[in-house]
Amino acid sequence: MRILYFANFREKMGLSEEIIILPSNVSNVRLLVEWLSARNELSSTLFTDHELIRVAVNQEIVEFDTEINSDDEVAFFPPMTGG
User: Fold this and answer.
1) What percentage of the chain carries pLDDT values higher than 90?
2) Distance of alpha carbon 22 from alpha carbon 29, whole angstroms
3) What is 28-67 written as a DSSP string?
4) Domain ranges in the chain?
5) pTM for the predicted model, two decimal places
6) What is the pLDDT of residues 3-29, one digit of tens each?
7) Most distant CA pair in the chain: distance in Å?
8) Which of the residues 14, 27, 33, 36 has an alpha carbon 20 to 30 A from that of 63?
9) Which own/partner pairs from 53-62 qualify as long-range (CB within 8 Å, at least 24 positions apart)?
């Protein structure tokens, strides 16, 4: 799976993307976020507040219950504001 990080996610992770092997027990966005947050303290801090995370799967903004597959591209970014 290809994971893309934007804005504060990219700055704090120190990378703009990574390729992971999706664990077999991770079947939706929520489980992916939980798995990512368990990797280390920094990830835990970034992925704790779901209200501050927006997710796109294959370039389409989705909800946390959206199913994912190992060949998907998942992007994380902060909520967008307008004005």
Assistant:
1) 77
2) 11
3) BHHHHHHHHHTS-HHHHHHTS-GGG-EEEETTEEE-TT-B
4) 2-77
5) 0.91
6) 999 999 999 999 999 999 999 999 999
7) 41
8) 14
9) 53/78, 54/78, 54/79, 54/80, 55/29, 57/29, 62/29
Task: Select from 32, 41, 39, 33 the least CA-distant residue to 69.
Answer: 32
Taken in order 38, 40, 43, 44, is the CA torsion positive or negative? positive
Q: Which helix (H) or strand (E) holds 11?
A: helix 8-13
Superfamily of domain 2-77: Beta-grasp domain (3.10.20.30)
**Token representation of residue 66:** 């959206």
Size of the chain in residues: 83
pLDDT for the residue numbered 18: 97
